[in-house]
From TrEMBL:
Species this chain originates from: Brevibacillus fluminis
The protein's name in its UniProt record: Uncharacterized protein
Superkingdom of the organism of origin: Bacteria
């Protein structure tokens, strides 16, 4: 299922992933698109928030708890335009940010 609105994205995150343990694959690249950095880790999603930022885009803030019990935050900028924000199927959520991609897998 393609995700087309911010509300739909938040609903999926809250109903399917908040409180659940998941595998996270976070890929980030610089503005030139040359350097790419990928991080893979397991964590429990504690909470989700979405807010406007100063660049007229959206900030998605995920609060996580890692396997050591430490709380950490993952900030990802999303397009303000509500189209092609991600996809969700079979317990796998892919989010398409402005300079990053995040995959959550239960």
């Amino acid at each position: 299922m393609d995700i087309q609105t911010h509300a739909e994205l938040i609903r999926i995150l809250e109903s399917e992933f908040v409180g659940a343990q998941a595998q996270f694959i976070f890929t980030q690249w610089d503005t030139d698109g040359e350097d790419e950095e990928e991080s893979t880790f397991a964590a429990r999603l504690l909470k989700v928030s979405l807010s406007d930022n100063e660049f007229e885009e959206k900030d998605l803030l995920l609060t996580l708890e890692n396997e050591a019990g430490e709380e950490l935050e993952l900030l990802m900028e999303l397009p303000s335009v509500e189209e092609d924000l991600g996809s969700f199927a079979d317990g796998r959520l892919s989010l398409y940010g402005t300079e990053a991609e995040l995959v959550l897998q239960k």
